[in-house]
Amino acid sequence: MAPDPGPAISVLQLRIALRGLSPPVWRRVLVPEHLTFGRLHNVIQVVMGG
């Protein structure tokens, strides 16, 4: 018998782009919908290399 996967988690897909650059620089990330702005800031820093 497979283990119980637990409650479903809603996920948001974000497209994060830096404006004014050629070629365009952007990332697509998946984050849980309950993520705080502070933690979202950390995710953006990591995925954009900052």
UniProtKB/TrEMBL annotation:
Residues 11-49 form the Plasmid pRiA4b Orf3-like domain. The keyword Transmembrane helix does not apply. Pfam families: PRiA4_ORF3 (PF07929). It comes from the Bacteria. The keyword Transmembrane helix does not apply. Keywords: Plasmid. This is Plasmid pRiA4b Orf3-like domain-containing protein. It comes from Cupriavidus oxalaticus.
